[in-house]
Design a protein that fits this description.
single chain, mainly beta, Tumour Suppressor Smad4, seven-stranded mixed β-sheet, five-stranded mixed β-sheet, 4 helices
Length: 186
């Protein structure tokens, strides 16, 4: 047998990619305590906390408007499956947290979608889960965005679309305004 045949099978590791944006990053250096562009291992039984207090939070943000503990991420395995997920919990009594467009108050928690945008205050965080098999730990990989994430990703607008299926923004881009017509005239 060769050494390749005798070697243990490598497990893939779940990786949570987090891309951070704040409009005053260049002036205030709010992300100076984060290690960007380097993967970091986190034990599966640990809760990854984000906030202002570096003695409690693994990921510290240098901003007095951020709560001591803003939010946490808990790694878990769904019941009766091999699928690994993250749960996000808002730990701020003062600031609401949104995940995509779901608003979380203090101590509210939800499962983190495989790709979503987390917002609190002026912060925008793009979270993307890269699936893996390991149950002992997961990895985080932090990135810094140059431009606002919400504009960059072109998320669908929250404007209602009429039954015709034509968005009001279509008329605006054509230089026309929408006109009301009777359904019997169609």
């Amino acid at each position: 047998m060769t050494s390749v045949e005798e070697a243990e099978t490598e497990e893939t590791v779940t990786c949570l990619h987090l891309t951070f944006y704040h409009p005053s990053q260049d002036e205030k250096m709010v992300f100076c305590c984060l290690n960007f562009c380097r993967r970091e291992q986190v034990r599966a039984d640990e809760t990854a906390k984000f906030g202002r207090d570096p003695s409690v939070c693994r990921y510290s943000l240098r901003d007095t408007r951020v709560s001591r503990i803003q939010f946490s991420l808990q790694f878990f395995r769904k019941l009766h499956t091999s699928e690994h997920c993250f749960e996000i919990k808002n730990l701020s009594k003062k600031t609401k947290l949104t995940v995509n467009q779901t608003e979380l108050g203090y101590l509210n928690k939800i499962d983190l979608p495989w790709k979503c945008i987390i917002c609190f205050g002026d912060y925008q965080v793009l979270a993307e889960i890269q699936e893996g098999e390991s149950m002992d730990y997961f990895e985080t990989h932090l990135h810094l965005a140059e431009a606002p994430i919400l504009q960059e990703r072109c998320l669908p607008s929250l404007q209602p679309i009429p039954e015709t299926g034509i968005s009001p923004s279509f008329f605006l881009s054509q230089g026309k305004s929408p006109t009301e017509i009777d359904e019997n005239e169609l």
